[in-house]
Amino acid sequence: MSISYNSEKKIFKLDTSGSTYAFQVFDENYLIHLYYGAKIPDDNLASMYYHGGFASFSPSNEKVETEGFSPDMCPMEYSCEGAGDFRVSALAILNSDGNNVTDVRYTGHKIYNGKPEIKGLPSLYLNSESEAQTLEVYTIDSTTGAKVTLIYTVFENYSAITRSVIVENTSEKTLDIERVYSCCVEFPQMNYNMMHLYGKWYKERSLQVRHLAHGIQSIVSKRGSSSHYHNPFVALADDKATEDFGEVYGFNLVYSSNFSAEIEVDSSNSTRLIMGINPESFGWHLEKDEKFYSPEVVMVYSNEGIGGMSRTFHDLYRNNLIRGYWKNKKRPILINSWEACYFDFDDDKIVSFAERAKEMGIEMLVMDDGWFGERNDDTSSLGDWFVNEKKLKGGLGSLIDRVRALGLKFGIWYEPEMISPESKLYKEHPDWCVHVPNRDKSIARQQYVLDMSRKDVRDNIFDQIYGLLSKYPVDYLKWDFNRNITEAGSALLPPERQKEFFHRFILGTYELMGRITAAFPEMLLENCSGGGGRFDPGMLSFSPQIWCSDNTDPIERLTIQFGSSMCYPDLCMGAHVSACQRTGIDTRANVALWGTFGYELDPNKMSDEDKEAVKSQIHNYHKFYDVIHNGDLYRIISPFENHYRAVWQFVSKDKNKALLTSVVMRRPETQAFFVRLKGLDPLKYYKDEDNGEVYSGALLMNAGLNLTDTDCSDGSSFIKYFTAQ
Ligand code: GLA
User: Fold this and answer.
1) Which of 230, 319, 517, 528 could form an SS bridge with 219, CB 3.0 to 4.6 Å?
2) Does 550 qualify as catalytic in the annotation?
3) How far does residue 489's CA lie from ligand 1's centre (Å)?
4) What predicted TM-score, i.e. pTM, was given to this entire model?
């Protein structure tokens, strides 16, 4: 049993193979957090509630008899607004008296095998009921009748716990949720580095590491997507932890819209972390008996450093987040038309790409933006999802037939949530785009956003997509989202519900995406948002892969892929070899091998030499697929710490195969270059498949490989493959 409740001590203990999380039902039914960290066998933790305090300025509750209690000083399991806790609060509900004092207390709980779904929202799933146990803790704010359920699912094999919250109005009056975070976690010290992934278009998910300081530090999105700017991932790493050693706590929100992670260090040097929907531009109106479901946060504990945390996320997401037909299937190597020709193509050009691609061993042709309406640049036609027969003479059916006759699969691009002012759809339904009355609508990339909170809008887009895809065999769909949401509001919502818009929008998107994937279960979906602007676990639960970034320069890709790998597994990272000239084609391929692997260049313009190189890269893709995509990732030299080289390694689960990749970003100053491998079996002997040399795992991990004589010119790279003897 991974979840236990000691009814005498009133202590809940949530145990995974490597971690323990504990909290207590305290006097007056307050829920007090006790511990989160490495696994401990017992629950003698009751004294953990006390963090000091000062009578005058640490408010208490007269009914509590235990000394030293203050909601402001004690570690609260789910912090509430306005009732004695002045730190960041996870929950604030405006009641019909007009105040937002909120105070939930324990009323009961339930423990069971399995994991509940979250209504309308993506979440981790189980392959069998025995894979995880769930604890539902019931609480009530007795003054307002807000019933708040805290849900914890414990993945015993992964050192992972998911958390979410349900708020239900059990009173006769209305309630308005102002903030409802998915988790609140307390730590009795502040000696942590906060790690998170910041960025922008073309430079997503750079790693930022900063020491916690007193006060509040936070990352947020209010763009209507998880965004290029901050990923919904944050970790707290013991300030002595490294890539390979020490304690690290990772948090990732399964959500694709406005999020917030706030970390507050208080005057007693205690740390509180809350993560969930960004309360700015959020509100939710609850009538009697209505419920609100928060998204889920995934919490991972590692005492094997940052790398250990990443590997847990990777395994968990491969097994319990990514789903459907393609979950365990080898993905086809694709060639995408975008960087090769942008909007300038016709059926013959696409077919010529397919012909050349086939000769090199590529398996799927993806026709990107520009095939519909009157779309010859980005000024028009989003929303008009019918084929432009001036470009595709003979229509889509004929093009697909020609591509398939070559033995290739066929994929297509859509941007379902968008509308161009220059479109038939906009002329017919100008009120369907996101807008508020009496204000200019901001334009971005010449387009507006469709109001996905409306069912009529979603139905129209679904019918258009379904109408086309049900006629023709389409193997792959790239779902794009190329701007953020401004002037957020819906023409259909009453004023008291306008603040629900952002959340309703993403619920609508999820519903539409769910309908499309259900209608075409074998079609491979790849999400995209101007590159990696919606690279989050919410999207990953619908599409097993997401385009990482519009930046396909292999050197720039290193930080993007290293950053993404903090919590996202290899086989979800959309990565292509492009025509970028900064390095030779082999380095471009060595970097793209880390991800889904594909091409994004004009094959008619390639030299014979490059075409030959592609054949051997494709051979490598097949040869290394298993070790990369089913193995463990070890980051060896990070481009965030070293300006010269980046080195990473994959090891198969049985430790019989290992693949080492090294890229020179800039010629290093010193020549000596030793690499100590990681994750091997010290007792096994491994053959370097390049030169036949055999070394023990112990040697490779301790003495390392002397790679001093490898090419160290700018942009050079190599891969090395080891097999156990
Ligand atoms: C976004 C995507 C690109 C491409 C274009 C098409 O920018 O990231 O890969 O699909 O849209 O307009």
Assistant:
1) 230
2) yes
3) 26
4) 0.98
